[in-house]
Amino acid sequence: MPLYHLIEWMKPIVEISILWFVFYRVLLFFEGTRAFQVLKGIAYLIIALLLSQIMGFQVLNWLLKNFFSIWIIVIVVIFQHELRSGLARLGQQHLFSISLGESELQALIEEVSDAVYKLSRRKIGCLIAIELQVKLTMYIESGVAVDSRISSPLLQSIFMTQSPLHDGGVVIRGERIAASSCLFPLSDNPSMSKTVGTRHRAALGLSEHTDAVIALVSEETADVSVVCEGRFVKIDHQQHFVNLLKELLNPGQKGTYEKVA
């Protein structure tokens, strides 16, 4: 087969593959949000449009065609929150990222794990965000600058109820605690239980706007959870916590953790 004909034959396959990949990534981006349900509704309308054309339903076909003529405006209005979050995430990406070495990453995980579980045993709530590719500068600036090397005793002292810094969250950047008492955006995800507290909503909200990995302890139940990309993972024991952080903080491994409704 001549090369020209081979290229022409391959074009539809490549185009379909690209479109399928883009569609898949869009679904992953909107998964767990209200927009995901809207996308399903639009898919049903597209199927209805195709059926109306096949069956020759002229009025229905005209109505659906006119609806899709303004689909761009509809998508912008309906998906404004998700689009704003996605564009903000793209705009906050590091052009050049500096990854921690294996020993530094291990030390970070050990200190955070030790602090989280000691606070959990005392039923003291905490909220710790670890910065990855998306900068958390705006959240760091909302808090109190700390700029100290990570240590379990320091993290514990920050979240003690007597501490003036215990409200809000801590942001870890690299090997350092950048700030405490940081304000994180609260999630308005309708699938969350009404009984979920502010700390959990703040963790979920930050994970919806950034790629940060957030560890939190519930003050009421002492349960430990990890949040990333809009997903909660309830931790069973300390080794589970350590293993999960290793997975999430290592490039190329994130995204395989269990989703918890």
Your description of this structure?
By secondary structure, this protein is an alpha+beta fold. Helix content is 53%, strand content 14%. The protein has a seven-stranded mixed sheet with strand order 2-4-3-1-5-6-7, sandwiched between helices.
CATH class membership of the largest domain: Alpha Beta
Radius of gyration: 23 Å
Mean pLDDT: 79
Derived structural class:
alpha+beta
Topology-level CATH name of the largest domain: YojJ-like (1
Quick recap:
With 261 residues, the chain is of the alpha+beta class. The chain is 53% helix and 14% strand.
What's the structural blueprint in terms of helices and strands?
Elements: H1 3-30, H2 34-55, H3 58-69, H4 71-78, H5 80-91, H6 102-121, E1 126-130, H7 137-140, E2 144-149, H8 152-159, E3 169-173, E4 176-182, H9 198-209, E5 213-217, E6 224-228, E7 231-234, H10 238-249
Parallel strand pairs: 1-3
Antiparallel strand pairs: 1-5, 2-4, 3-4, 5-6, 6-7
Helix pairs in contact: 2-3, 6-8, 6-10
Descriptive keywords:
261 residues; alpha+beta; YojJ-like (1; 2 domains; 7-stranded mixed β-sheet; 10 helices; 7 strands; 53% helix
